[in-house]
Structure formats: structure tokens, C-alpha cells
Design goal:
Elements lengths: L2 H22 L8 E4 L6 H9 L4 E4 L2 H10 L4 E4 L8 H7 E7 L2 H17 L7 E7 L15 H9 L4 E8 L7 H19 L4 E3 L6 H7 L3 E4 L1 H4 L4
Parallel strand pairs: 1-8, 2-3, 3-4, 4-5, 5-6, 6-7
Helix pairs in contact: 1-8, 3-4, 4-5, 7-8
Length: 232
């Protein structure tokens, strides 16, 4: 089996799993976007996925996002991993969205980077969509902001005209029930949407907990291993 055939088979299976999970929870499958996560896989896989109808992928590292966005400018690259502030400028040049906003410091770095990219015409002519990474357990080692830190972060975002709050992202901590974590994140997303008076995304669910995320209301599922296979 060629790599293209393998990816096509895996992609079809995951799309079918999303449709099934949506039906089981009474949702419209069209409300849920699949974001294949290509971290630690070669840029050539992005090209194969593009030919299979994928128009957006997720990346953890800024340097890999830059490479893949440069090689395949017709595929949107979402940054889903932690971003060091010294790499914010590069991130803002290539990211279609950032799912891992978790600090005031990063918000300010992304604001500066986005303003610079727009001013210089560096692949950006509009504000950068950002999702707040919600930390369910408050463990700083895993990234994310606990609920107690949200007021300060949201206040900082209100002063960042080049960033647009687009929703919530979460990763369940080990040992916690994914459904519980996703429900808390969905509640937070709904609160953001009510306050902003516009729809918000919930970026939740990976290969092992996709069904629970869809049931909780996820609108973006980030699937790596089930599509790309074991990490290289």
C-alpha cells in the first residue's frame, strides 16, 4: 500500500467516525471540522492530504508550521502547540489560527507579531483568530490557563485589535474523564459566545476521545495518529 493509499483509507475511517459520533449525539456532521495533525510527519504528507480534499492541518511547532505553510500555501496551518514568545512573529506570518493562547504575555507577543505581519504584507491582511487553551486541572506544565486566570487574559485580549477571540481549546489531563473536561470547556465556549454575541469554536477531541468531544459540542477535532499513523 502506498502512503497516499494509507492516508486515504485512514482519512475515510476518521470521517466516518465523526459522522457516526455526530448522529449518535443528534448533531449535524457538517458542524464538525476535522483538523488532521501532521506534527512530526513530513511535509509531503500535507501535499497528499491536500490532494485528498484536506484544506487545513494542525502543527505543534512553529518551525514545522513555517515549512509546511510555505510549501503548501493553499493549506491552512493551525498552530495547536505551545508557542514561545520569541517565535510569535514567525507564527503570526503563517498561522491560520492559534489554538493555544494561554497567557497575557503570549497575547501581547501575538498582537505585535500580527500587526507587524499585516504592516509588512507578510501573508496576512486580517486579524489572527486565537482560541484560549483551557486548563481543566491548572497544571502549568501542560499549558493552558485555568478558569481563575481567564479574566486577566480576556482583559488583555480586549486591548489586542489584531487578535480575534474565536473559541476554546482543551486537552484532557491524564486520569480525568474526557467527557467531564469537554463539558467544562463547552460551557466556557458558550459563555464566550454569549458575551461576544457571536458563534465560538470548541477545539476538542483527538484520536482516542473523538466521540466524547463530538457529544460535548466540539466543532474542531484534532486527529493525528488515527490519520497519519505513529509519529515519525
Amino acid at each position: 500500500m502506498t502512503r497516499a493509499e494509507d492516508l486515504a483509507h485512514r482519512l475515510t475511517s476518521v470521517r466516518a467516525a465523526i459522522r457516526s459520533a455526530a448522529r449518535d449525539s443528534g448533531r449535524d456532521p457538517e458542524e464538525i471540522r476535522l483538523l488532521p495533525v501532521t506534527k512530526f510527519h513530513p511535509a509531503s504528507d500535507v501535499g497528499i492530504l491536500r490532494d485528498l480534499g484536506v484544506d487545513a492541518v494542525g502543527e505543534n511547532r512553529v518551525q514545522d508550521a513555517v515549512e509546511k505553510a510555505t510549501r503548501f500555501p493553499d493549506v491552512a496551518v493551525h498552530l495547536i502547540g505551545q508557542i514561545q514568545t520569541n517565535k510569535a512573529n514567525a507564527a503570526c506570518r503563517v498561522a491560520a489560527a492559534v489554538h493555544s493562547l494561554d497567557s497575557v504575555r503570549l497575547a501581547r507577543a501575538l498582537e505585535r507579531g500580527t500587526a507587524l505581519a499585516i504592516d509588512r504584507g507578510q501573508r496576512r491582511d486580517a486579524p489572527l483568530p486565537v482560541l484560549v487553551q483551557f486548563s481543566f486541572d491548572g497544571d502549568p506544565a501542560r499549558g493552558g490557563v485555568p478558569e481563575s486566570g481567564l479574566p486577566e487574559l480576556l482583559d488583555a485580549l480586549s486591548g489586542c485589535p489584531n487578535l480575534v477571540l474565536s473559541g476554546v481549546m482543551c486537552v484532557p489531563p491524564l486520569g480525568r474523564e474526557p467527557a467531564e473536561v469537554f463539558a467544562a470547556a463547552a460551557d466556557l465556549r458558550d459563555r464566550f459566545a454569549a458575551e461576544a454575541k457571536r458563534p465560538m469554536e470548541l477545539s476538542a477531541g483527538m484520536s482516542g476521545d473523538l466521540a466524547e468531544a463530538v457529544a460535548a459540542g466540539s466543532t474542531i477535532v484534532r486527529v493525528g495518529t488515527a490519520i497519519l499513523g505513529p509519529r515519525g
